Amino acid sequence: MSCTILLPVDGSECSQRAAQHVVHIASMVQGLRVHIVNVQPLGDDWMVRRMLKPNELAALEQEWGQSAIAPARAILEAAGVTCTDRVVQGDVAQTIARLAEELGCDQIIMGTQGRTSLGNVLLGSVVSKVLHFSNVPVTLVK
């Protein structure tokens, strides 16, 4: 039986704990496929557009995204779990839900609080929206 997991990360400690949970699952499921994704929010603020050229912004977003992915990738690779990764741009929650469907994921595993959760009481707004938009099961890791 194969299983495909989408692991959205933002570089936070909670994302790293989610990666460790995926390692635990990998020890029980043969043929596990893991897609690590970092979604960069749309940089369409007028101030950003005024200061940076589109190609400069794209390069920065790739750099930020790869930096956010690196800790989770290291955790998975250290445990021998094969994974693919990508940095994409868009509405974070909607993009996560869309990618889960496009990649044929059986499950989304993500941290409950990321770097952007300041001010959110119970669950981060991204997590709440992923739960709303997703058509696949979502496992939240505290």
Descriptive tags:
142 residues; five-stranded parallel β-sheet; single chain; 46% helix
Structure overview:
The protein has 142 residues and is an alpha/beta fold. The protein has a single domain, classed as Rossmann fold (3-Layer(aba) Sandwich), CATH 3.40.50. Helices cover 46% and strands 22% of the residues. It is built from 5 helices and 5 strands. It has helices at residues 13-26, 46-51, 54-78, 92-102, 125-133; strands spanning 3-8, 32-40, 83-89, 107-111, 138-141. A 5-stranded parallel beta sheet has the order 3-2-1-4-5. Helix 1 links the parallel strand 1 and strand 2 (32-40). Helix 1 (13-26) crosses helix 3 (54-78) and helix 4 packs parallel to helix 5 (125-133). The longest helix is centred in the middle third of the chain and has 25 residues, at 54-78. The radius of gyration is 15 Å and the shape is globular. The two termini are 27 Å apart. The model is unreliable at 117-122 (pLDDT under 50).
